[in-house]
């Protein structure tokens, strides 16, 4: 008999989740290439605007992760309609927050872009792009909520199709809307923003349609509830608060690292950017494993309300996923070590930058096994709804590990070695904290909702 939560289940959930995670970065590459043909000024405006707009998804991912944690417990308890209802409530929350984002974004776009851009012409283009792109914010958040409840019911395949459909259509439209065709000159930079809104609207519409299908299929004795439920919304906001604070801790660390690297010169910040983007890339793969862990652990704990073995099953899933993360991290370490002679040269031919890369590269390579375990255990604890602990552990790692070493490296001139020592301390503190928590078993609280 196949072991639930084994390699096959992890792959079944993780493999379709990976294209969803990669879709936005890949689309941004297409968008950058298309806008780049307009010239340096529009591209600079897009860079500023995209960084600002990315904060919407970066800071509000609780709509995915928090919803998965709650929906998966109901699903494990055999209450699919209740799991989908969590998705409905998360969608109401997404729409409400999205409207607020539009309002605040329109008010703050000009002053914030002006601070970041460093020039009126760049800021003007960024604001023009943002004012259009922000109209799609509610749809972005609906998509996050849709991913959340679907992962909770262990369906990562449909979200893959929905997200790729929206981004694929937008990638086809973007060159036409930006550069035009025939006698039409297109909308320039603003066309890129319109293409973004189209992608978000298509994907969100497919997730909303999926909710409608679930409601029709739900049994009459256990319907999917459509009205806003203040009790559920309050619980989702509480969980979301902890995840938002955790995300802000990450942002403070990585923004500080880039700021300090820039003060060591162009070569240092360029080398740091190359290695950091590779870190982001491998994080996508490890995040896919973490998403599988969330769904499987949450489901096991939800089932534990009626099955005494459910908690033991959740711990067994956690142990297996951790081993998979360690193995994957070791594979990444070997691959990146082997590719060192050639991979940095793909990103730059500047001899000074290439000479600086090793100061970060070997930290990055050595951290892969640690990252594999940390990401896996993050997924386990997120699936258990242990967001308050993760919030505290992340802030402790930031304040006690990353940030002091980052700023000391600036003070004493340690360069990239100091910056990546800070990142290493950050990861080690996280490893120790989530490892202790996982071993303690305090996260394994059975029931349809976390008490």
From TrEMBL:
Mode of membrane association: Multi-pass membrane protein
CDD domains recorded: MATE_DinF_like
InterPro entries: DinF-like, MATE_fam, MdtK-like
GO CC terms in record: plasma membrane
Compartment(s): Cell membrane
Pfam families: MatE
Transmembrane regions: 46-66, 87-109, 129-149, 161-181, 193-213, 324-347, 359-381, 388-408, 414-432
Gene Ontology MF terms: antiporter activity; xenobiotic transmembrane transporter activity
Superkingdom of this protein's organism: Bacteria
Keywords, ordered alphabetically: Cell membrane, Membrane, Transmembrane, Transmembrane helix, Transport
Family recorded in the similarity comment: Belongs to the multi antimicrobial extrusion (MATE) (TC 2.A.66.1) family.
Protein name: Putative efflux protein, MATE family
């Amino acid at each position: 008999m196949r072991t639930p939560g084994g390699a096959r289940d992890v792959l079944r959930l993780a493999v379709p989740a990976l294209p969803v995670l990669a879709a936005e970065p890949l689309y941004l590459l297409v968008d950058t290439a298309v806008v780049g043909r307009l010239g340096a000024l529009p591209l600079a405006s897009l860079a500023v605007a995209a960084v600002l707009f990315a904060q919407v998804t970066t800071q509000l991912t609780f709509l995915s992760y928090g919803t998965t944690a709650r929906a998966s417990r109901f699903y494990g308890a055999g209450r699919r309609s209740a799991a989908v209802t969590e998705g409905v409530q998360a969608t109401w929350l997404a729409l409400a927050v999205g409207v607020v984002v539009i309002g605040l974004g329109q008010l703050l776009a000009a002053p914030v872009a002006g601070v970041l851009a460093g020039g009126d012409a760049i800021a003007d283009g960024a604001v023009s792009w943002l004012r259009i792109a922000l109209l799609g914010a509610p749809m972005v958040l609906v998509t996050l909520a849709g991913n959340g409840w679907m992962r909770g019911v262990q369906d990562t395949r449909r979200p893959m199709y929905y997200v790729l459909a929206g981004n694929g259509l937008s990638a086809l439209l973007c060159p036409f809307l930006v550069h035009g065709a025939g006698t039409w000159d297109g909308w320039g930079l603003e066309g890129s923003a319109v293409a973004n809104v189209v992608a978000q609207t298509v994907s969100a519409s497919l997730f909303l349609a999926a909710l409608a299908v679930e409601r029709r299929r739900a049994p009459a004795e256990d319907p999917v509830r459509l009205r806003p439920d203040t009790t559920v919304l309050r619980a989702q906001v509480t969980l979301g608060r902890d995840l938002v604070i955790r995300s802000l801790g990450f942002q403070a660390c990585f923004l500080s690292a880039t700021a300090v690297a820039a003060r060591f010169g162009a070569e240092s910040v360029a080398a740091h950017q190359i290695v950091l983007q590779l870190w982001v890339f491998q994080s996508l793969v490890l995040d896919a494993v973490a998403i599988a862990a969330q769904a499987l652990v949450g489901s096991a704990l939800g089932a534990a309300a009626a099955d005494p073995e459910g908690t033991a099953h959740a711990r067994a899933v956690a142990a297996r996923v951790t081993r998979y993360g360690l193995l994957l991290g070791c594979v990444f370490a070997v691959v990146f070590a082997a590719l060192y002679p050639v991979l940095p040269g793909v990103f730059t031919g500047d001899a000074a930058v290439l000479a600086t890369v090793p100061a970060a590269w070997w930290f990055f390579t050595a951290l892969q096994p640690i990252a594999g375990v940390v990401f896996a255990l993050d997924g386990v604890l997120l699936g258990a709804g242990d967001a308050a602990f993760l919030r505290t552990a992340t802030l402790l790692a930031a304040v006690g590990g990353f940030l002091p070493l980052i700023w000391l490296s600036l003070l004493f001139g340690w360069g990239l070695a100091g910056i990546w020592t800070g990142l290493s301390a950050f990861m080690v503190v996280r490893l120790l904290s989530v490892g202790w928590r996982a071993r303690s078993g305090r996260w394994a609280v059975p029931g349809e909702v976390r008490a």
